[in-house]
Design goal:
With about 600 residues, the protein is of the alpha/beta class. The protein is built from 20 helices and 12 strands.
Length: about 600
């Protein structure tokens, strides 16, 4: 690690200004009382006002009257949540209760005490009031964002907001504000009706391929142009409200989907970068989405020194495809050490073909990851919302995590911290955990603050200390992990899934398949993967000589070379030169006498 390295590490404040059902399920469990402004709150609801507040009114789950009838269906995103209210002023008051209570100053202080120096804050594109006539959204979050920034200023935490949604939806996910029927970018990057050409098998075959060169013929859609206006409006508001001392980074768009036109995304990123720097200052960090494939960007994009302080953002999860959910504990960590580590190291380099010199412009950051491993969120969420409707209580609300599972979660978190810093590649600047807290126990493994309190989430190290210096290599963590498959509780049952649907990329890496048994130790006691070049290559892709140098033993080699030179000179004092040829990566060494 270079002495000047200063890691960017923190946590997402997910579900605060852009709501997500799995984070706050009770808030989405609306009744007819809510729609009239007679707000009721479920027992232990995480964003309810204090029970001493005049706003607090308990929704009794055991009540038998029909005063408050659950909506059918419940809202699934902010679009349907806001649309459920005919009176937008009532919707705004309801949302303000969430903004006011979901995060507290005590939460921010707790995060700081546990090493957090950065928070990533998802923002809705309508936060400053940019709402089209055909959109049901309501604003009102901006004063609470300003309050949050003030708390972070007091705590010494930097704030990196990102625009998490876009007009038309950049990915079709619920966290884009509007859940579409399919995951697609074409509601954002194209004009006219959404193109329903999505096919999971074709997508898996073509994801990240075919990056076009040049942008002379790029035509930006109306929604892309509107998003540029929104980037301008939000960054101007940040500057106008004197927040740039704390808001030091900005994400221009979260997770544009894999079928986005890469030329459109790149043009949007270029224009957004200029807007952010102009409004917030030239030193502002800017991060951009990788379109779900970081290799797409390793073509010299933004490697010039003038792009220092920009970051290519990737998000890694093991729960959204069936194949990873099915893995054993060691296999989960092996997947981190192999696929996730390699994906992190796939970009960005000065020498794009050799990938040996990290970019001196754009760097890498892993903006989202979690310790969740075996539960598909959307399916579990359906069960949670059904339980609320039927009983008034979220299923598994008081769920506890076993000691054995917590032990694994600790290793799983440490392995990801090490892998996403990618010290062996030198291309990453850090990461953000998703997310700071969740309601109830069904999604406990996503809850950073709970993990800290229960000990399965490590404190974030000091900014000048790499995680590998504390926890060892990813392979070290793999081999200290007990491969106890009884702690894996895959949900939903894989036998219930449609085999014709895409279940994730094939997992054929030998280290993952063998549960790590294919790994070997070199002469220095370090684990290496024979599939990556045999004993001549360590985990970082280095030859034995370079590995030896990295272990501060270079003086032994120098001593040996000098001794050989001395002997040869004594024996061949009339020689014009001595030529020493070795198999080092440094090639032939000529020493003149």
């Amino acid at each position: 690690m270079t002495p000047e390295k200063s890691w960017i590490r923190g946590v997402n404040l997910g579900g605060l200004f852009l709501l997500e059902r799995f984070i706050t399920p009770y808030f989405f469990a609306l009744t007819t009382c809510h729609l009239k402004g007679d707000f009721r709150f479920y027992p232990q609801q995480i964003d309810a006002p204090p029970n001493t507040s005049s706003l607090y009114k308990l929704l009794d789950p055991n009540a038998t009257n029909d005063e408050c009838i659950p909506l059918t269906p419940y809202p699934v995103d902010e679009w349907t949540l806001a649309a459920a209210f005919e009176d937008k002023s009532i919707a705004r008051k309801y949302l303000e209760i969430h903004y006011d209570n979901f995060v507290t100053k005590e939460d921010i202080d707790f995060l700081k005490q546990n090493g957090v120096t950065y928070v990533r804050v998802p923002l809705a594109h309508w936060i400053t009031g940019n709402i089209a006539d055909d959109e049901p959204y309501v604003d009102g979050a901006w004063p609470y964002f300003k309050r949050l920034v003030g708390w972070c200023r007091d705590a010494g935490i930097q704030v990196w907001p990102d625009i998490h949604t876009a007009p038309g939806s950049q990915n079709g996910f619920d966290n884009s504000g509007h859940l579409l029927g399919i995951p697609t970018c074409h509601g954002w990057d194209m004009d006219g009706p959404t193109v329903n050409e999505y096919n999971a098998t074709l997508l898996s075959m073509n994801m990240g391929l075919g990056v076009p060169s040049g942008d002379d013929d790029v035509v930006l859609s109306n929604n892309v142009k509107r998003t540029l206006d929104i980037v301008n409006e939000i960054t101007m508001a940040i500057a106008k409200d004197n927040m740039t001392d704390v808001v030091t980074g900005f994400g221009v768009l979260n997770e544009p989907f894999a079928n986005c036109d890469a030329r459109v995304v790149r043009k949007f990123d270029e224009l957004s970068l200029d807007i952010v720097k102009r409004n917030m200052g030239s030193q502002t960090s800017v991060y951009i989405g990788d379109i779900f494939n970081s290799t797409k960007w390793n073509d010299g994009w933004w490697t010039d020194p003038k792009f220092k302080g920009t970051y290519l953002d990737s998000h890694y999860y093991h729960v959204f495809d069936e194949r990873p959910r099915h893995l054993s504990p060691r296999q989960h960590i092996a997947l981190v050490c192999q696929k996730n580590r390699r994906d992190t190291g796939a970009c960005c380099y000065q020498d794009k073909d050799k990938r040996s010199v990290p970019s001196i412009g754009i760097s890498r950051i892993i903006g989202e990851w979690s310790a969740s491993l075996d539960t598909l969120v959307c399916d579990k969420l359906d069960a949670v919302m059904s339980g609320i409707r039927e009983t008034g209580v979220a299923p598994e609300f008081d769920r506890e995590i076993s000691t054995e599972r917590m032990s694994f979660l600790r290793n799983f978190a440490e392995a990801q911290m090490v892998a996403y810093e990618a010290e062996d590649y030198g291309v990453s600047s850090g990461w953000f955990y998703w997310t700071f807290k969740t309601e109830g126990g069904a999604f406990a493994e996503w809850n950073f603050m709970r993990g800290l309190k229960e000990g399965w989430m490590p404190q974030i190290p000091a900014r000048n200390i790499a995680s590998t210096d504390l926890y060892g290599s990813c392979y070290d963590i793999l081999f200290k992990t007990t491969d106890d498959e009884s702690i894996i509780h895959e949900f939903p049952d894989p036998n219930s899934l449609d085999a014709n649907n895409w279940q994730g990329f094939p997992i054929d890496d030998d280290v993952v398949v063998s549960h790590g048994k294919s790994l070997k130790k070199d002469n220095h006691g370090e684990w290496y993967n024979p599939e990556e070049g045999g004993e001549n290559v360590d985990q970082g892709g280095n030859t034995p000589l370079v590995h030896f140098l990295n272990r501060s033993s270079y003086w032994l080699i120098i001593f040996a070379i000098v001794s050989i030179i001395y002997i040869l000179k004594k024996r061949n004092h009339k020689s014009q030169y001595i030529e020493i040829t070795g198999n080092s990566e440094h090639g032939t060494l000529e020493l003149l006498s």
